[in-house]
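Colleagues,

For the teaching module next term, I've prepared a clean inverse folding example: a structure given as tokens, and then the sequence designed for it. I'd like students to try predicting residues themselves before seeing the answer, so please don't circulate the second half yet.
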């Protein structure tokens, strides 16, 4: 081989290394397959709506439908994962475990690769026992909640199968946009939000990132998964809707007619869309969020190459010392419905010889998609957690909350010590026996770290 031919040969090897042929990436898609499915889950009858304790009547209609949507992913090794998003305020542990176990049984997918994620819209129906202490339900409404919950579970299991049947080759990529309408509700006078924003005087930590996962088949967008750390509480009407997240998904599905848009809520437990309380504002915020997603889809995206690794764990979060019976007897006489309702429930348990729980099995789940670390946290998680996790794990991190079990607020130590609704009194409405112990943040972070290491992630990875 002469010197010229040798140089050409070496240059060819270099070019191949820098620009692999499509076959080197399994047809140019990195070995990934995806399947998508969706179904309307709007109740057919009037039902009590979730999220607010000041409602006095069941639903009165529908602003727009609420949905369950499923994304099935399969890597080159045929490892599958399922993300199912729900336009619901929350789900409880029993419902979640029952649905996930049935999906695992039918489709041979382990629990660590099945996620149920709620948008936390407050214009959705009551499901199971989630926030049940809050609602003055009569017998008929209780029956409707039970019936809807049973049908919802069957629907989700069927939807998972539809998404798996839809699996086909896709290219996965990832990016991050920004939307600025979330305001720290603990740190700002809410009816002065516009004034404070104009004066650049808003206070408190926020997370304005909009993480976006894009699924493409050729040049066509087949799906977008996106998140935002903000309560879905623009609306308080008695009409079903997905709030701003619902409007955002509708806008994206108009922009990409062949795609399914899925919203996964971030750590927005102490964040509100401000100002709020009108359909016009919900639409406005939905368009803002969709605009951030569109700009990200059109911008620089990082391809996700590699496979799916996953891990799931539960860590016992301790409550502060639980009061004795005399405390609950006093609270049972309260004129505040939720306070008395919780106390009566606890007294009933004590009368049956049961003990009140001293801790709760808190779920944490981690997926590693190529170089992207995706963390799924249960409960209503305050923004401090996402900021801490992303600060330490780096930019290729997607943090989601309201996943698998929405059992209570999850305050950071800062918020717990400050007290208030997110740190203490919200536990009344979730039917928990008191605030968390002071080690709540460190227990959650320790479990996140354990699972991140298990899937091969971590700082600098």
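(Answer key — instructors only)
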């Amino acid at each position: 081989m002469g010197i010229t031919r040798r140089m050409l040969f070496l240059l060819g090897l270099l070019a191949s290394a820098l620009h692999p042929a499509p076959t080197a990436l399994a047809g140019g898609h990195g070995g990934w397959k995806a399947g998508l499915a969706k179904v309307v889950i709007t109740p057919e009858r009037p039902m009590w709506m979730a999220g607010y304790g000041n409602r006095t009547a069941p639903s009165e209609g529908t602003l727009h439908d609420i949905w369950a949507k499923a994304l099935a992913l399969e890597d080159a090794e045929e490892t599958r994962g399922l993300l199912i998003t729900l336009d619901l305020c929350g789900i409880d542990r029993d419902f979640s475990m029952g649905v996930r176990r049935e999906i695992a049984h039918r489709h041979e997918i382990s629990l660590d690769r099945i996620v149920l994620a709620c948008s936390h819209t407050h214009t959705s129906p009551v499901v199971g026992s989630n926030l049940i202490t809050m609602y003055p339900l009569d017998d008929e409404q209780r029956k409707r909640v039970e019936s809807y919950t049973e049908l919802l579970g069957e629907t989700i299991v069927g939807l998972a199968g539809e998404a798996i049947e839809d699996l086909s080759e896709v290219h996965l990529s990832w990016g991050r946009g920004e939307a600025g309408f979330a305001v720290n509700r603990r740190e700002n006078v809410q009816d002065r939000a516009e004034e404070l924003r104009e004066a650049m005087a808003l206070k408190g930590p926020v997370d304005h990132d909009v993480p976006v996962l894009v699924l493409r088949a050729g040049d066509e967008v087949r799906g977008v998964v996106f998140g935002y750390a903000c309560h879905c509480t623009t609306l308080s009407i008695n009409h079903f809707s997905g709030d701003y997240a619902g409007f955002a998904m509708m806008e994206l599905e108009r922009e990409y007619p062949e795609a399914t848009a899925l919203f996964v809520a971030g750590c927005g437990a102490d964040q509100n869309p401000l100002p709020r309380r009108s359909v016009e504002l919900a639409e406005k915020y939905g368009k803002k969020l969709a605009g951030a997603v569109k700009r990200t889809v059109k911008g620089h995206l990082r391809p996700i190459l590699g496979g799916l690794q996953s891990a799931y764990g539960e860590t016992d979060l301790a409550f502060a010392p639980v009061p004795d019976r005399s405390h609950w007897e006093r609270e049972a006489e309260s004129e505040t419905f939720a306070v008395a309702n919780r106390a009566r429930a606890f007294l009933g348990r004590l009368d049956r010889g049961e003990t009140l729980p001293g801790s709760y099995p808190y779920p944490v789940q981690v997926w590693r998609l190529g170089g992207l670390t995706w963390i799924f946290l249960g409960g209503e998680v305050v923004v401090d957690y996402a900021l801490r996790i992303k600060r330490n794990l780096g930019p290729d991190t997607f943090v989601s909350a309201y996943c698998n079990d929405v059992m209570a607020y999850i305050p950071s130590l800062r918020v717990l010590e400050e007290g208030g609704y997110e740190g203490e009194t919200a536990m009344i409405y979730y039917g928990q026996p008191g605030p968390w112990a002071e080690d709540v943040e460190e227990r959650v972070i320790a479990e996140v770290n354990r699972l991140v290491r298990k899937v091969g992630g971590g700082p600098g990875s």
